[in-house]
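Notebook entry, structure prediction.
Reason for the run: the old model in the group folder had no record of what sequence produced it. Starting over properly, with the input documented here first.
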Amino acid sequence: MSVVIEKRIAILGLKRIGDAIYTLPLIEALKQEGNVAHITVFTEPQVAAIYEANPFIDDVQVFRKTDFWRHTLMQLKADRFDVCIVLHNAFKYALLSFLARIPMRVGYIKEGRGWLLTHKLPLPNTVTHRLEHNARLGDLLGVDGRGLLPQIYFADEEAEKSQTLLKHLGLIAGGYVLMVVGSISPTRRWFHDRFAEVVKRIAVELKLTVIIVGGPDDVEAGESVRHLSGGLARNLAGRTSLRETILLMRSAAAMVTNDTGPMHVASAIGIPTITWYGAANEDEIAPPSPHTTILNARVPCSPCVKESCAHDLICLKGITPEMVMNALKAKL
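New structure, fully documented this time:
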């Protein structure tokens, strides 16, 4: 039985896009089955767009990293929450809920912080998908998020914003493929020349435009792929906000991408998405969308879950442009 009915719930969100995506089913579950809980998510600017227009969230509090701890503590105290779900496993986030004197404090035991939590679990000792990881916290509150898929929601007025953005960029809905050529880890970055080969084949074989998107750190990689493709790709990396990128995803024919946060967003939106895994553990973070195709070379050292490679990135070298194009054509 749910213990969160008519409760004010604070959720201390995660800092990375993909991690934030996998918290969405738990949030939805908290509002299901007649629960009328009030939910406030505390997060940082780089992931705030994930929560926009979500009908299961009543309020989103966004604070910069440098101010997050201080402002969140003040807000937690002022709003008199009944429950705090501490999704981040660091000690300091559990301490926030304790100092705010929130009666129910939910999270995993790590860094000796168990005494700060009232409802707690040990971290899994086997590989556990992030969705199941978060669902187990829901178990502590009598709610079940299993079977729910992450979803991105849109406000009514965003339909017009989307059309305006497409017109500004000279694009038409369904007439382009998005591409993410960067990633936070070197062991998740496919090779620029192979991306460029895919760009050329998309242009020639599918007659679609390729738009490279990403954050400021992806600009140089995007420019490299654009150059290697002979200018057939347009590089918008660093030029659109996360929410604008999400609007572009909504109208895209497909996405071809490294293992990145935007890949998880595209999967949650439900557009055809082609990605690949090597260093990362597919069993832990693979998107559940039926519209997403995951390529994997299945080399002996994978998944290593490392950010450096002693084996010449054979897991990524095993992914060929031909494999990517075959997967993309199968989805379109």
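Summary: The longest strand covers residues 38-43.
The old model has been moved to the deprecated folder.
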